Amino acid sequence: MTFACKHHEFETDTCRRLKCDCIMGRRGCVLEGRVTLTEDVKKKLQEIEKDRSVSKSSVSDTA
């Protein structure tokens, strides 16, 4: 995969803007809507969102 992004940290493959793993085209990415995501990437993003929503609900349950 070849792309250029000023927010991409090449050594760690992370996004400086979002402060997480670099997944080109994810929500908040400067390339969002400008690239076509593969089914594998879409599935990975869905899993991340699912995990994030579970984490938020468990935090709100303890508050």
Describe this structure in words.
The protein has one domain (8-62). It has 1 helix and 3 strands, in the order E-E-E-H. The protein has 63 residues and is of the alpha+beta class. It has a 3-stranded antiparallel sheet, with no helix packed on it. The longest helix has 24 residues, at 39-62. It has one helix at 39-62, and strands spanning 8-9, 14-15, 20-21. Strand 1 and strand 2 form a beta hairpin. It is globular, with a radius of gyration of 14 Å.
Question: What's the helix and strand layout?
Answer:
Layout lengths: L7 E2 L4 E2 L4 E2 L17 H24 L1
Antiparallel strand pairs: 1-2, 2-3
Largest sheet: 3 strands, antiparallel
Overall strand count: 3
For the termini, the CA-CA separation is 43 Å
- Oligomer status: single chain
Mean pLDDT: 82
